[in-house]
């Protein structure tokens, strides 16, 4: 079996993601070692917390470079929640912070409306184009969200699915061999398991 590495930079639901992967038949490795990340077959970047702190942790551990190296070699990467946001060029959370820049675009805060921020709970996704990550996931599938910020790709083609919360926002993004989901598939029951299984089953070319 090819090796899936869950990247440990001190800010993710590592065990929850590991258990969700086990439930769909994968024995993932949790690692903070840049060399393990570089030599993985596929990567998952989870995350909970502040963007700036997360990027600082990644850089201090040398994981930012390892992630970029793995992606440059064509290895699939899936970011989850904050992990999705870190894939983008820049975030406006508590100032301006540079991201991994694997998907060109920005991380924005939800505008103050009558809706609650953070966006917490179950919500639906609608696909914008076919993709193997969405195989057997019908439009309207529910996933579990917890976030105050959302991603805004520079290129419309990098938005893979959208969700409505006071207006549409990009809830799944993809650029080449890099995918990201704003929600938590590890907390999203059958739909989350399906998405994770689809990620494990990805085949070249991307």
How is this structure best described in words?
By secondary structure, the protein is of the alpha/beta class. The chain has one domain (4-200): Rossmann fold (3-Layer(aba) Sandwich). The chain has 6 helices and 14 strands. The longest helix has 12 residues, at 189-200. It is globular. The mean pLDDT is 94.
Give the overall shape, derived from the CA principal axes: globular
Low-confidence stretches are none
CATH topology: Rossmann fold
Structural domains: how many: 1
Relative strand content: 25-35%
What does the largest sheet look like? Answer: 8 strands, mixed
Structural category is alpha/beta
* Helical content band: 25-40%
Distance between the termini: 20 Å
Which CATH class applies here? Alpha Beta
Order of strands across the biggest sheet? 2-1-3-4-14-13-12-9
Multimeric organization: single chain
The total count of strands amounts to 14
CATH superfamily assignment? Answer: Class I glutamine amidotransferase (GATase) domain
Order of helices and strands: EHEHEHHEHEEEEEEEEEEH
SS field, number of helical segments:
6
Mean pLDDT: 94
